[in-house]
Amino acid sequence: MNECIFCKIINKEIKSEIVYEDEKFVVFKDINPKAPIHLLLVPKQHISSINDIDEKNENFLEGVFNVIKNVAKRLDFFETGYRIVLNTGKDSGQEVLHIHFHILAKRKFSWPPG
Ligand code: 5GP
Ligand code: ZN
Known about the structure:
Layout: H1 5-10, E1 18-21, E2 25-29, E3 37-43, H2 60-74, E4 82-85, E5 101-105
The protein binds guanosine-5'-monophosphate and zinc ion.
């Protein structure tokens, strides 16, 4: 049985606010937002992290970028800018082991990140 929380969101077994969906990706609102807009972009395929991306995932990033741009235009932060965060592994603080891109927008972000 798949206990992955993001797989359950993708399969609609757990409720979430989905803002975009196609045959390969889902984008939903983070339950604990760190900015006025804080979305999580996930592939429908269960991949634990960037470390598990391989040649079978051809064009993966191209698909991710297209979804990000689509959502940025629709939710009106394409021009104002946004930050994409991809945590990988223990030191990064990755908590959910289903690869997810954080999409943060509608405020200024500092550098370096914490
Ligand atoms: P990570 O630390 O793994 O990069 O980020 C996991 C993110 O998933 C966190 O920002 C957390 O708030 C979010 N999250 C965890 N559980 C749920 C959930 O059940 N629903 C939603 N919408 N977001 C979740
Ligand atoms: Zn999963």
